[in-house]
Amino acid sequence: MSLADQISELKARALNTLQGTTSAADVESWRVSYLGRRGELAGLISRLPTLPAEEKRAAGQAANDAKNALQSAYDERVASIKSASRGDGEAVDVTLPGIPPAVGGLHLTRQTLYEIERIFASMGFSVFETREVESDEYNFELLNIPPEHPARDMWDTMYVSEDVLLRTHTSPGQIRAMRKYHPEPLRVILPGKCHRYEAVSARSESMFYQVEGLAVGHGITLASLKGVFQAFAQQMYGPDREMRFRASYFPFTEPSVEIDISCTCEGRGCTLCKGTGWLEVSGGGMVHPTVLRNGGYDPDEVTGFAFGMGVERPAILKYDIDDIRRFYANDLRFLQQFA
Ligand code: PHE
Q: Does 87 map to a domain?
């Protein structure tokens, strides 16, 4: 076949293909493959100089003809796709992809809270939310921490006024829950935001979340706390995790414990557990008789256990997050990974 014939064959084929395009993107890729600088037509034209003179004339004409025909067919096609009308005469390309609406996601902390709440709900705990701005009385005094008590040093506090403060822990909710439920037995968790006047670092933020747990009733012992927390820890951290209690001190529990879970390094030593094989996840203990009394219960009748744990920590462990400040820095590049 002569080059001229090849060119007219190409022209026919290209025009035919153009009929099948339905979107601006289709038309553009059609243009690239037929009319583009590296397209088929250009490929054939590049062979012109090698032809004998008489063939060259015929092929040259065919090439011009094809080029013009394809170019005007292309222009028409583009115009017809663009002119799909919006009704008000405005041209709109109905084939353009739509703008997908941005879908939000739950914050990592909220996801962790839901997980914790789900596990405790399965053990009969209800969620009891209390205030974030508290009185000195609830945050400290009713929890057996009088003014001037040295234990106040455990919580560096941000005060709003002389007796109003941002709660430093969720424990004041214990009193609020007890005052609401007494003398009935209760089983609640108290999730919420807490604030401390901290030097902010990779390990501590001035604002963070805690979940407090509280059970009051007949025959509740430290073993009850151990059983409940063990069941929680295995669902939260995995069935192979072990748990241990270590003696500790809090003014509102007696006895008091720190609750540790075994580290995934299994004691081989890692930076997370600093080689100890254990990770501290919660404080806890038996509710102090004075605190029970402040909540309206008779400590000769009932006993209770309480615990209080951080919420960011489990997420940090699960996702290996290197810096707690990322949680509330509002950097979407971080947050979207969990959405
Ligand atoms: N409120 C304590 C803290 O923030 C934790 C705790 C809660 C300890 C309940 C014992 C009982 O450190």
A: no
The Cα–Cα gap between 302 and 291 comes to 12
At what angle are helices 312-319 and 222-237 packed, to 10 degrees? 40
Q: Which atom of ligand 1 is nearest to the CA of 256?
A: 10
Statement to judge: residues 142 and 75 lie in one domain: no
Q: Which of 134, 165, 169 to mutate to test the pocket of ligand 1 (most atoms within 8 A of CB)?
A: 169
Which among 179, 106, 169 is positioned nearest to 132, based on CA atoms?
169
Domain-located, residue 101: no
Give the tens place of pLDDT for each residue, 300-319.
Answer: 999 999 999 999 988 988 88
pLDDT tens, residue by residue, 57-106: 888 898 899 899 889 989 888 888 777 655 555 667 778 888 888 888 99
* Largest interatomic CA distance in the chain: 118
CA–CA separation, 305 and 214 (whole Å): 6
pLDDT at residue 91, rounded to an integer: 64
Residue 61 and residue 142 in one domain: no
More confident residue, 151 or 40: 40
Number of domains the chain contains? 2
Residue 213 CB less than 6 A away from ligand 1: no
Give me the residue label for tokens 């506090």.
Answer: 157
User: Does ligand 1 come within 6 angstroms of the Cβ of 192?
Assistant: no
If phi > 0 it is left, if psi is from -120 to 50 it is alpha, else beta; for residue 234 that is: alpha
Neighbour tally for 14: CB within 10 Å? 22
Are 168 and 298 found together in one domain?
yes
Is ligand 1 within 6 A of the CB of residue 208? no
E-assigned strand segments in the chain: 126-127, 133-135, 164-166, 186-195, 207-217, 243-250, 253-262, 278-287, 303-310
Domain residues for the domain of 286 are 108-335
Reported pTM = 0.71
